[in-house]
Amino acid sequence: QVQLVESGGGLVQAGGSLRLSCAASQRIFRVNAMGWYRQAPGKQRELVASITSGGSTFYADFVKGRFTISRDNAKNTVYLQMNSLKPEDTAVYYCSTTGSAIITATPKTYWGQGTQVTVSS
After folding, report:
1. What is the DSSP string of 53-117?
2. Of 73, 7, 8, which Cα lies nearest the Cα of 34?
3. Helix, coil or strand: residue 39
């Protein structure tokens, strides 16, 4: 069973930076992209950024120019560098991907347990 484990969240003042990591417990096959999502209290979960196997990236408008997503395929890890943080970035951040634990299996979507990011004003 594939597990995604996020780390790097915490409390930071506005204008500060955090770097989130998401490590997969094993290599995941047939992955198209890995993404970071966030969910603030009382709000729906939203896509923050994603990166394809080929390295193409997507960013939501509200993080463009401040956040950077990257991946290390050898370590089965995806990162989210968050700079110039704002109080409205406060949320639980989740990583997610769709793929297969073994190459012959039907792809399924995996989610991490989430890591809390709190930005104080």
Report:
1. TT--EEE-GGGTTTEEEEEEGGGTEEEEEE-S--GGG-EEEEEEEEEBSSTTSPPEEEE---EEE
2. 73
3. strand
CA-atom Rg of the chain in angstroms: 14
74 sits in the region (left: phi over 0; alpha: psi -120 to 50; else beta) called: alpha
DSSP state of 25: S
Q: What is the pLDDT of residues 66-88, one digit of tens each?
A: 999 999 988 889 999 999 999 99
The token pair at 115 is 């890591």
Which tens digits make up the pLDDT trace of 19-45? Answer: 999 999 988 888 889 999 999 999 999
Residues 113, 69, 81, 42, CA torsion sign: negative
Which one, of 107, 87, 88, 89, lies nearest residue 98 by Cα? 107
